[in-house]
């Protein structure tokens, strides 16, 4: 096989950002560290709970752990355990699961947007924190104010997460150091050193990989749970939320006339169906949906809450006509270049981010060590690759999620409408030009090939050897740069929205038009919270757990 053909194949299979080989990942049956983790659906369904949390992901795990301090909680997670899976737990195996998906059981479930971009959503306890690039950074202060959150409780909740799951890098890799220096050379200042706060300039931030290369997912936050008050049910897929119609009483016992969530229906890995219920004696008991930006709108619609005409197409009985469900979704598009290094690199996930002052994009980077198969006609046994990418901070382009079937295991139809707003395309062009400036810095020039040391792969420009799309030579040409953005459009997997505060849920995250139902996850975000959403999504789980406990006090 020609090495260039192999490289292009690998890039397509791994969504360009991370190249990986594909080996089946199967959790060990003895790898569950918590006594309250179970796959026994019959036993879990036989009890009643104060709270049923749909989704043991980035928000669901800290939420459930917090609520279990005082109340009984059932977490229903459609995936399996992240423990005992090397491709999840080990930093040097990061990215492999994104290219290794099947329809119903893999930890990553791929889906193809109507825009033609391939993404993946998590199907594993811990959610996206089990699959992502591990970069940990808080939301901007503007975002926190826009959400109407209590600043003191936000700080307390971030600190709770960070004591368990955020790690300061003990050192920067050589590639990250060069990238940092390059950002400073082109004026992405000030240099903020290490901080988890969202700040303009260049900074080093935390990671959920510790300094031994072990990943700490949101599932690790379950260590803080009261083991006597929680059940985490794995490999169980929620089909729908169950309602009493109308509600006999409101949250404080007064009649409300609204449908009231009373439980959920779910199936096990073999297709056996079960129903599980809230404690009927407590009007404060709730179902809380934490299934993510794709799953939460889907669960609502399958349960009869959503645009009435769409539900009618699938013969789903209407509970509440809520046209905003699934609307206004957002994904931050990414434009990337990949460089082949003439000198060895070590693997590096994202350690450094550049936030240019007054811009609407971020600049980030990573490096890859990729063994070359013996079947290729290359003299090199290993490729060392550096990625530089820009991500739009708060794209104005919006899309929608629509049901594709009544099977909750199927992906819904997703369209993000990347660059449909012309300002988004302008911001991408500006970000791509900043990448071009980086390549002209003294720091990055150390990764250009000399005439005597030429690469045998990829396109070449100014001594750099690109794997895949190269930057246009005429970076001053708006049309050429816009074409580059369109041709390289991809995802940072930071999609959110579909159940916005103010449209689908109120300021307390209660679903409009029904009782005893909330949504707590990134589907409630109208915009991205910063360079990476995982810190804020974990924080939100803790934050809302504390708020709910305060409400009931």
Question: What are the salient characteristics of this protein?
Answer:
about 550 residues; alpha/beta; 7-stranded mixed β-sheet; 6-stranded parallel β-sheet; 28 strands; disordered N terminus
Helix and strand topology:
Layout: H1 3-13, E1 37-38, H2 41-45, E2 48-49, E3 51-54, H3 60-67, E4 73-76, H4 86-89, E5 108-112, E6 118-122, E7 135-136, H5 141-146, H6 151-165, H7 174-185, E8 191-194, E9 201-204, E10 206-207, E11 230-233, E12 237-244, E13 260-267, E14 273-278, E15 286-289, H8 292-302, E16 305-306, H9 308-313, E17 320-321, E18 327-329, E19 333-340, E20 352-355, E21 361-371, E22 382-392, E23 399-402, E24 413-415, H10 422-439, H11 442-445, E25 459-461, E26 464-466, H12 478-488, E27 490-491, E28 517-519, H13 534-552
Parallel strand pairs: 1-11, 2-14, 3-4, 3-15, 4-11, 8-9, 15-28, 16-17
Antiparallel strand pairs: 5-6, 7-10, 9-20, 12-13, 13-14, 18-23, 19-22, 19-27, 20-21, 21-22, 23-24, 25-26
In DSSP terms, counting alpha (H) and pi (I) runs of 4 or more, how many helices?
Answer: 13
Q: Any idea what the shape is?
A: globular
Low-confidence stretches: 1-30
Share in β-strands: 15-25%
Cα-based radius of gyration, to the nearest Å: 23 Å
What is the averaged pLDDT score? Answer: 90
Largest sheet: 7 strands, mixed
SSE class: alpha/beta
How many strand segments? Answer: 28
Head-to-tail CA distance between termini? 67 Å
Strand order of the largest sheet: 8-9-20-21-22-19-27
Residue share in helix: 10-25%
